Amino acid sequence: MYLPYGLCEPHGPQNAVGLDALKAHAICCAAAQTHGGIVAPPDYWHIHEIGLYASWAAERVGEVRSWLSAMPPWQHFKNVCYHMRAVDALGFHAAILVTGHYGPNWEDLKTLLSILQPHFATRLYGLPDFEANQPGFDNDGRSGGDHAGKVETSLLWALEPQCVDMSRMPVDETGAPHFAMGPDATQS
Question: Model's pTM, two decimal places?
Fold first, then answer.
């Protein structure tokens, strides 16, 4: 069983809102088509009114209107617990949780699954999408993801081309932050 997770947040004017979950879902679908398995619908969650996420959103997205809402992280992880309970009760042998959102969330997801694992017969594994890319996005063996830059834009473009419109890229940096677009998005 594949379970895709991600925030429904802006990722630049060139990408569909919700890029995180869209790419996680597409990656899960590709894995299931290749290796077998069932893919759950994507789980979109929000954390942008809390702590550092709130200040990041104010700086990178702006506050002209409220694009983002919040579900506390503890509620998201409580939902993950219920997802694992359902997966185990249905008798799945393995659950692969893929998060398209980076930040500290993916580390928290791995920690939660290590706490839950002794209580479930289902084998649990969680990862951020960039962990599956061993050569790294720059073929240096180290590079991870970005935010709405060349990595995430290129990934979404490859996985869900109808969700990327490069003609919406700003001509210059006047009026930035451009919906939280990454500084190297034009290299996509």
Answer: 0.89
